[in-house]
Design goal:
CATH superfamily: Ferritin, core subunit, four-helix bundle
Oligomer: single chain
Bound molecules: fe (ii) ion
Number of strands: 0
CATH class: Mainly Alpha
Radius of gyration: 16 Å
Number of domains: 1
Number of helices: 6
Strand content: under 5%
């Protein structure tokens, strides 16, 4: 039987809602629990985190009737899951434990998802979350001076920029007044 990680990687590679550049190998220069803690921010802390993004895109995928938008939401959710896996790998290698916790040590909860009532509001909330994620990754890049972690974060950022473009194009196409 083919290795599951290989199967998933080749599946992810074929998805259209990501940047083209291949994902780098997940490694770190050395253990650094402070960096691990900083990455928990992007992992499961609040509205800009990968774990929240997966919940948000899946909810929107389940509830949006327009097929083009619902499909894009599903596709992006799968890429956010790839990001979650990358961060979990880095957090572990830096000496942390990738539990679904906020940086204030409270557990993640479903109230952190921006659900929205209408399709256009959902798209706007997704766009806001991507902008916050991009800002969050830029801040992490200025704080974390491990060249391998930086390479991983830069690659994730490229995907978030693609997501922002895709969602903005959908908003303009379907929600112009
Ligand atoms: Fe992401
Ligand atoms: Fe994203």
């Amino acid at each position: 039987m083919k290795n599951i990680e290989e199967l998933v990687d080749s599946f992810i590679d074929q998805l259209p809602c990501k940047a083209d550049r291949p994902y780098p190998e997940m490694k770190v220069e050395r253990e650094n629990p402070r960096y691990a803690k900083l990455l928990m921010d992007a992992y499961a802390d609040g509205g800009k985190s990968e774990f929240t993004a997966i919940g948000q895109y899946m909810h929107h995928h389940f509830t949006i009737e327009n097929k083009e938008i619902a499909d894009t939401e599903f596709c992006i959710a799968l890429i956010e899951m790839k990001h979650l896996e990358m961060l979990a790998d880095l957090i572990t290698k830096l000496g942390g434990n990738p539990k679904f916790k906020r940086t204030n040590n409270a557990w993640w909860d479903g109230g952190e998802v921006s659900y929205g009532d209408t399709t256009c509001l959902k798209l706007k909330l997704d766009i806001e979350a991507e902008k916050a994620a991009i800002e969050g990754y830029r801040l992490l890049l200025s704080e974390i001076h491990d060249k391998y972690v930086q390479q991983a974060l830069c690659r994730i950022l490229e995907d978030e920029e693609v997501h922002l473009q895709l969602l903005t194009a959908l908003l303009h196409k379907h929600c112009r007044k």
